[in-house]
């Protein structure tokens, strides 16, 4: 699995607001937002469900990770997705940050990813 997920009994727009609030409470800001539905419509003229990718960053942890290994920026920020599910609600998933640590033997990066995972799991649990 790529991350932590949770189905929500609310609409897409409400889910996005709740996710942003939960991220902020754990010290994450949203650096990027990709509206996949809009992008696919514009670029390919295809219809797709509501789906957004939020590029979340917690600056202290980002600094620790980059200090431990400069190339880890290739795997940052931590992506969180929100999409309309087939049950009429929304699904939220956050990346498993330990995937970053698996590409290296850097122990500090392993500690950072463990700490970030705890925060991301709290985000998902709070929804």
Oligomer: single chain
Helix % is: 40-55%
Classify the fold: give the CATH topology: TATA-Binding Protein
Which word captures the global form?
globular
Total domain count: 1
Question: Structural class given helices, strands, pairing?
Answer: alpha+beta
Cα-based radius of gyration, to the nearest Å: 15 Å
In the predicted model, the low-confidence regions spanning at least 5 consecutive residues are none
Spatial strand sequence of the major β-sheet: 1-5-4-3-2
Kindly report the average pLDDT value: 95
Tell me which CATH architecture applies here.
2-Layer Sandwich
Strand content: 25-35%
Distance between the termini: 20 Å
Number of helices: 5
Report the order of strands and helices.
EHEHEHEEHH
Number of strands: 5
| Name given to the CATH homologous superfamily | TT1751-like domain
Query: How can the largest sheet be summarized?
Result: 5 strands, antiparallel
CATH class, anyone? Alpha Beta
List keywords for this structure.
single chain, TATA-Binding Protein, five-stranded antiparallel sheet, 5 helices, 45% helix, globular
